[in-house]
Specification:
The protein has 7 helices and 10 strands. By secondary structure, it is an alpha+beta fold. It binds a DNA duplex (16 and 16 nucleotides) through helix 4 and helix 5.
DNA sequence: CACGGATCCTGATGGC
DNA sequence: TGCCATCAGGATCCGT
């Protein structure tokens, strides 16, 4: 489910409401990707101060320490005053004075990790190598180009790796490369400055619009095609192998890169 | 060190 | 209750 826009929209959905809340109890279900890192009882009595985001991680600031929350491939967070009984895939729940925060994650690639601070070893391990925030002012063409020049692998895989720029997941990687007219297999270091500029613009444009549009993914959009207001985020290439390119009509191709599927238009995207 | 591949887990889907 | 293979929006870990 979650690429950066959904994580950001999730954050916006409860950050203000949970701020100031006191933690009343913590429930842990089946193991997630990593252990919580402290006894659940240690969180009781803490106060939630804010919810921030770094890449696809949510940072839930407490008066002592913080929680790093990642939704993995299949996770979703809900926050409400009253929730139904715990479901099969609800593996973390934190009751607070303002409502209950609950993580549902069928595949359990997600995680909730307590760290004493952002300098704690586990925090540095998870957050330390993250690249630039795509919607921040830091992410400019010059820095993007400099980052890509250091990487010798395919541009699609560099986008996914997240150590140059964060938040571009498998769907948006294919989509932004289409919008920029760049073949996904091209060596990142060899992209010309104008092409880097086009890719930079595509990333900011697509991610920014997805956040503004409520974080729904392109895949969801395609299934909801025809709904007004969402039309502009219809997938151009993702999951469209064999179908006609919406721009030129050429059949969309697919390939595997690092165990992930990639989609592109062989005519619109130049090698 | 940078890269490519294996890996964690459950569920949906489609072929046979 | 059919069985099996494949794929899924992530990203870390490990061997080379």
């Amino acid at each position: 489910m979650p690429e950066l826009p959904e994580v950001e929209v999730t954050r916006l959905s409860f950050a203000d409401r949970i701020a100031g809340a006191e933690v009343l109890s913590v429930y842990l279900g089946k193991a997630l990707r990593w252990p919580l890192g402290c006894a659940p009882a240690k969180l009781v009595g803490r106060t939630v101060q804010a919810v921030r985001r770094r890449g696809k991680y949510l940072l839930v600031d407490l008066d002592q320490g913080l929680l790093l929350v990642h939704l993995g491939m299949s996770g979703s967070l809900g926050f409400a005053r009253h929730l139904a009984a715990l479901g099969k895939h609800d593996h973390f729940e934190m009751r607070t004075s303002h409502g209950t925060l609950r993580l549902n994650d069928p595949r359990r690639f997600g995680a909730v990790v307590y760290v004493a601070g952002e300098d704690a070893p586990q925090a540095r391990k998870l957050l330390g190598k993250l690249g630039m925030e795509p919607l921040s002012d830091d992410f400019d063409v010059a820095r993007f180009h400099a980052g890509l020049k250091r990487r010798k692998t395919a541009i699609k895989q560099v986008l996914l790796a997240g150590d140059v720029v964060v938040g571009v997941g498998n769907i948006y990687a294919s989509e932004t490369l289409f919008l920029a007219g760049i073949r996904p297999t091209l060596n990142a270091a060899r992209l010309s400055r104008p092409r880097v500029a086009r890719l930079h613009a595509a990333i900011r444009d697509v991610l920014g619009r997805a956040v503004a549009g409520g974080g729904s993914t392109l895949r969801n959009f395609s299934s909801a095609a025809g709904e007004s207001g969402h039309f502009q985020l219809e997938a151009m290439v993702y999951a469209r192998a064999g179908q006609a390119c919406r721009v030129c009509g050429t059949a969309i191709k697919s390939l595997r890169q690092g165990q992930r599927s990639t989609f592109y238009c062989p005519h619109c995207q130049k090698a």
